[in-house]
Design a protein that fits this description.
Largest sheet: 6 strands, mixed
Strand content: 5-15%
Distance between the termini: 77 Å
Number of strands: 10
Length: about 700
């Protein structure tokens, strides 16, 4: 037996356990202060995170110090300097107990104050259920479409723009959960079933409004309603002139933030209160541009929105938000390939730099720079960093989330991209485009059951959606079930501007070998006037016609390839870096039998967009290359390329709406030259929903 005390007894004697409790209580109090007080001074969240990390790291050091040092009536002393007197141990222990009680009391008081005092004006909770899961949101809001009370119904854009601007300002308040405009668009301005709408959107409060514009004056009515019990929380009427409408938007957003108990200070208050312009003509043009921009991408509509923003900056050259929107519009035209001219690139950079000179720190300007880096410069690493920083400051903006997801997908991070789209659905729950994007991503990954489930979600939300049947048809085409695909495809395109967005019909007819049906339809399309068609729409339809004629053995294909090639070369004189045109030229050269020129064009495309930079575009090009290899008799290289593509996810090529599958290999006439090859036969015998594992060797 020994008289030496146990380790646990020694911990008690040296008050190590009490010191640990005091440290933990103090750390909890510090974190409570940081999380509840820092936001009032606009201190960023990363500071709070580092405080938590530092507190956790410091815990073992605090225990170690309490082992070697002791609090005594004479102050802090080393353990070796004091006698192990029981009275000293008890005295120190009692002092530590008192400090623990004081610190814990302060932490509890602060917690109760935050719960019952600081948030006493917050809206009551709304319940939104999916299955058996129920989520509660108290600082959540949806802004319904504003009613246009103007006698001139052409002023509807003004009400749309006002709603959009108020919604944008609310979305900049990170402590609010703000539903995107897309999900509120289907509802009436003053519906009678607010609790039902709130439940669908998963929010506690609804903002209704109306706008009446007459000449240079505007009357804006807004009312904030708690959905539970249909209780009116706040209402206001604003009579303003056109040169002061931006002040109203900030006032409304600030009042709502106050009513919902949302923190609004520092940078957030500056962003919300910003008066972008006091020029009436500039305000009117800007709101018109916003209304057009929010209606989805159609070239003519996008061009009209850009013209509106151009009018805004002409009326007020110091209107930074309009310059930022103009830069985004120009960048989008370049990105889509509709106007990728040097002049448009110069204009985009000028608009961006002007916005940065006027207001470099606004979220609109920062967003314009991020979009420019992604869409014009094609620097995905830099774009990702920009959008991640923007998302941290602007967590309610769905467009930012979606663009970040596109960047991640192009870099090969599909799981992260899908997770962002899923998060976007919490802010835009009725947005069918998000479900469509998840369906496209599922098809790219050959997860066809998941894709069909997402399409069914679209049909629940929008039963009349015309694209949903075509998207489901893609999944059945990829599986080789032509009968199911055909049953879904019953409204073929009739105009060139429709053809590029509906390639499923031509995929089906190619695999059915119904070339005559496609040829007749395409010939009618090219003879029909189409005011919505851009230059590339007609080129694309003619290339499709030439392809079908080639497969049918019709010599007329050569003439159509030449017509398309000449049109592409004319456009390339002004848009030498347009990848759509570079690819189209290569395909026309292939159709004309110019093998060397065709592969040179494909290789130029891949040098510009290698797989290390953009997996989506690169694999798109690699599929096209494999098709050309098969066409020109390079069987071994074609099979090697197809084997690689079967093992990786991607979004299909110019002449298919999904990635390579064994079913496609069995049915697509482009691969008829490989039918007798044993290795090709093994690839084509696989399961469409279970892609082969890639060997990792690129062709």
């Amino acid at each position: 037996m020994t008289d030496k005390p146990s380790f646990f007894a020694e911990l008690k004697r040296r008050n190590v356990l009490r010191a640990g409790m005091l440290y933990a209580a103090g750390a909890w109090l510090l974190v409570q202060v940081a999380t509840q007080v820092f936001p009032f001074f606009d201190i960023p969240n990363w500071v709070v995170r580092w405080i938590v990390i530092a507190a956790a790291i410091g815990f073992p050091f605090a225990l170690a110090l309490s082992w070697f040092y002791e609090f005594t009536p004479e102050g802090l002393k080393a353990e070796s300097e004091i006698d192990a007197d029981p009275s000293i141990v008890r005295s120190t222990g009692k002092a530590l107990d008192r400090w623990i009680i004081v610190v814990l009391s302060l932490a509890v008081v602060l917690l109760l104050a935050n719960t019952f005092v600081l948030h006493k004006d917050a809206a009551g909770p709304a319940q939104s259920s999916t299955g058996n899961a129920t989520t509660t949101f108290d600082k959540s809001i949806a802004v319904l479409p504003f009613e246009n009370l103007s006698s001139d119904k052409d002023n509807a854009y003004f009400a749309d723009g006002m709603q959009d601007e108020i919604l944008t300002r609310l979305s900049k308040i990170g402590t609010l959960r703000v539903i995107s405009r897309t999900s509120t668009l289907p509802f009436a301005s003053h519906p009678g079933n607010l609790p039902e709408i709130a439940a669908k959107l998963g929010v506690a409060t609804i903002l209704e409004g109306s706008v009446q514009k007459a000449g240079n004056t505007v009357r804006i009515n807004v009312q904030l309603i708690r959905a539970l019990g249909d209780q009116h929380l706040w209402a206001e009427t604003y009579d303003r002139t056109l040169d002061d409408v931006f002040g109203v938007q900030g006032e409304v957003a600030g009042a709502i933030a106050n009513k919902l108990g949302a923190t609004l200070s520092g940078d957030a208050r500056k962003q919300v209160d910003e008066i972008a312009t006091r020029n009436a003509a500039a305000s009117d043009a800007y709101l018109r541009g916003l209304s057009l921009m929010r209606q989805g991408y159609v070239l003519a509509q996008e061009s009209a929105a850009i013209h509106a923003f151009e009018d805004a900056v002409k009326a007020d050259p110091h209107f930074a938000a309009a310059w930022a929107r103009l830069a985004r519009g120009y960048s989008h035209l370049i990105f889509t390939g509709d106007e990728a001219t040097p002049q448009r690139r110069t204009a985009a950079l000028h608009a961006l730099e002007t916005a940065e000179q006027l207001q470099p720190d606004t979220l609109e300007t920062l967003a314009a720079r991020a979009y420019y880096i992604f869409r014009v410069q094609g620097d995905y690493d830099a774009a990702r960093k920009r959008f991640e920083a923007l998302h941290a400051r602007w967590p309610n903006d769905v467009d930012v989330m979606l663009t970040l997801s596109y960047v991640l997908a192009r870099q090969g991070h599909q799981a992260e991209a899908d997770a962002l789209v899923g998060h976007a659905l919490t802010l835009d729950p009725l947005n069918v485009q998000l479900h469509k994007l998840l369906a496209i991503n599922a098809i790219a990954g050959r997860r066809f059951d998941d894709a069909i489930a997402e399409v069914h979600a679209v049909r629940v939300l929008a039963p009349a959606d015309a694209e949903a049947p075509r998207m489901e048809a893609r999944a059945w085409l990829a599986r080789g079930d032509l009968a199911r695909a055909s049953a879904l495809l019953d409204h073929p395109p009739t105009l060139p501007s429709e053809e590029s967005g509906q390639p499923e019909y031509f995929d089906l007819e190619r695999q059915q070998r119904s070339y005559a049906t496609s040829i007749a339809r395409l010939e009618r399309m090219l003879k029909t006037p189409d005011p919505k068609a851009g230059p590339f729409d007609s080129i694309g339809a003619r290339m499709e016609l030439a392809d079908m004629q080639r497969l049918a053995g019709d010599r007329a294909a050569q003439g159509n390839y030449r017509v398309a090639r000449d049109a592409v070369q004319d456009l390339l004189k002004k848009q030498a870096e347009n990848l759509n045109l570079i690819w189209a030229l290569a395909w026309c050269d292939a159709g004309l039998g110019n093998e060397t020129a065709a592969f040179a064009g494909v290789d130029a495309f891949l040098r510009h967009e290698p797989e290390s930079k953009d997996v989506i575009l690169a694999r798109y090009a690699l599929e096209g290359r494999a098709r050309l290899l098969a066409r020109f008799g390079h069987k071994h290289d074609a099979v090697a390329g197809l084997r690689y593509l079967l093992g990786v996810p991607y979004d299909g090529s110019m002449y298919s709406t999904y990635s390579i599958t064994p079913a496609m290999l069995r049915l697509d006439p482009d691969f008829d030259t490989l039918r007798g090859d044993l290795e090709f036969h093994e690839l084509a015998a696989g399961d469409a929903a279970t892609p082969a594992t890639s060997s990792g060797t690129k062709p």
